[in-house]
Amino acid sequence: MNLIIKLLKLKITKFILSVCIVAFMASLYFYYDFYVRQYHKCIGFYYVNKGDKAYKKTKYQQAIDMYKIALRHYPGHSGASCNLGNIYVSFENYYEAVNAYENALKYNPNYMACRMDLGIILSEKMANYDRAIQEYGKVVNSNPKFIKIPFVYDNKKSINVNKGLAYYNMGLAYRGKAVYMADNRLLSFRYLKKARESYIQAKKYLKNDFDNTYNLALVSHLLGDYSSAGSEYCKAINIKPDSFEAHYNFALLLRSMHMNKEALAEFEKTTMLIDYYGKDEKTKYVYGIIGEIKRRILNEGGYDYLKDRVDLTSVSSDDIVYKKGKITADNQKDFNMTEQLKCTIQKEFKEIEE
């Protein structure tokens, strides 16, 4: 009896195996293209892995070779295409970079990081502002799903940051268009307004971001909205007190508003930063403006003010050192230069706006 059962099991096993072989051969006949695609996909993944390893080791030419082989076998690997685009950017081969980014997005339109890279190259390297704005618009209008696994994964923050950066870069693109159309004041003004709208949208996602705050101030300045510009310059300076550009443009704004005492203080801060960072091309010009503003204050009867105030330009570059991420005057105990550089008149601009 046991022998009969064993023989039956053996026959059933052989039968099932035969059916599986026949089914496989039939599927191979009817779905030959599918199996070929899977074969090439496996080869593609193998070369993508080799390309990724070379990319991490900054062996860029080897990475390019591996990614190209991978994409010949598996054109739909968007990660390989995007990495290939990034490498071309490092080689300043922007047209090939654009082609690589476009190939990645062809197969994965929701690859927002790659779309952002494409927009940046189109705007900043190729001056194709319209196309860049379209790409940024697709990022901000995307509606990806928020995925949250407690203590493991939460993509909400990264999605919001990407949208904020897209709005910020859109602002840069509109500002680029405004500069390009400088001869047409009406169009230039319109693009500057769009740039400001983009920076304002970016603020909703990028909290306390220096670059966005500073550029919002700069565009408001160019639009002639001095109160908003002053308020944003102050915020930018308080985020990054050692920014020469923020102090310099804020000083120019204060000078235009005939806030001479405040302008003098800001220009003196720029001279301190000039001495530290070595921006020699602006030294003579800034000191000339300081002389002009002092004459204005004297003409307004401010002799005692000038005599009694502390002149920050008297702080020598030899007295300034960099300690723990802060600019510090070495000849005064506990004198924190970073605090000295911060903006203290933001309240005045809020009152002007009100």
How would you explain this protein's 3D organization?
The protein is mainly alpha-helical. The chain has helices at residues 2-30, 32-56, 60-73, 78-90, 94-107, 112-125, 129-140, 156-180, 185-203, 210-222, 226-239, 244-256, 260-277, 280-299, 303-308, 337-341, 346-353; strands at residues 148-149, 153-154, 320-323, 326-329. The model is unreliable at 315-329 and 331-335 (pLDDT under 50).
Secondary-structure topology with pairs:
Blueprint lengths: L1 H29 L1 H25 L3 H14 L4 H13 L3 H14 L4 H14 L3 H12 L7 E2 L3 E2 L1 H25 L4 H19 L6 H13 L3 H14 L4 H13 L3 H18 L2 H20 L3 H6 L11 E4 L2 E4 L7 H5 L4 H8 L1
Antiparallel strand pairs: 1-2, 3-4
Helical fraction:
over 70%
Radius of gyration: 31 Å
Mean pLDDT: 82
Query: How are the strands ordered across the major sheet?
Result: 1-2
Question: In what range is the share of β-strand residues?
Answer: under 5%
Q: What's the main sheet like?
A: 2 strands, antiparallel
Topology pattern, helix = H, strand = E: HHHHHHHEEHHHHHHHHEEHH
Report the strand count.
Answer: 4
Terminal CA distance:
101 Å
- Total helix count? 17
Oligomer: single chain
Global outline: elongated
* SSE class: mainly alpha
* Contiguous runs where pLDDT drops below 50 for at least 5 residues: 315-329, 331-335
In short:
The chain is mainly alpha-helical.
